[in-house]
């Protein structure tokens, strides 16, 4: 790169580099969607285990009351976390909608 492309030892970004970064961002969005989907599936599994624990407690088939209580508490905490993540995502989406280009 020529001397004109450098400012204080930094080089300018070419169009090709910007296009590569854009494709990485799109891939990052897909990766985010996969992570979000796996997190929702994990919360669903935890909720199902909690439902089984509650059913076992109701029918008297519970083997370990402590483990059942932990499963219920874990399900409650994971659901609260998922709801907070949803609320933050909706808030960010609404903020982007209000942004003027």
Describe this structure in words.
- It is a single chain.
- The chain has helices at residues 15-59, 65-98; strands spanning 6-7, 10-11.
- The protein is mainly α.
- The protein has one domain (11-98).
- It has a two-stranded antiparallel ribbon with strand order 1-2.
- Strand 1 (6-7) and strand 2 (10-11) form a beta hairpin.
- The longest helix is centred in the middle third of the chain and has 45 residues, at 15-59.
- The chain is elongated, with a radius of gyration of 24 Å.
- The relative contact order is 0.07.
- The model is unreliable at 1-10 (pLDDT under 50).
**Shape estimate:** elongated
Topology pattern, helix = H, strand = E: EEHH
Widest β-sheet, arrangement of strands? 1-2
Q: Note the total helix count.
A: 2
Structural class: mainly alpha
């Amino acid at each position: 790169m020529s001397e004109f492309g450098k400012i204080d030892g930094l080089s300018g970004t070419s169009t090709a580099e910007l296009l590569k970064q854009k494709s990485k961002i799109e891939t990052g969005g897909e990766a985010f969607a996969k992570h979000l989907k796996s997190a929702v599936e994990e919360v669903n599994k935890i909720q199902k285990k909690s439902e089984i624990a509650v059913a076992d407690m109701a029918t008297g088939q519970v083997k370990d009351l402590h483990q059942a209580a932990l499963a219920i508490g874990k399900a409650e905490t994971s659901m609260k976390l998922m709801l907070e993540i949803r609320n933050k995502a909706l808030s960010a989406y609404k903020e982007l909608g209000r942004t003027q280009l």
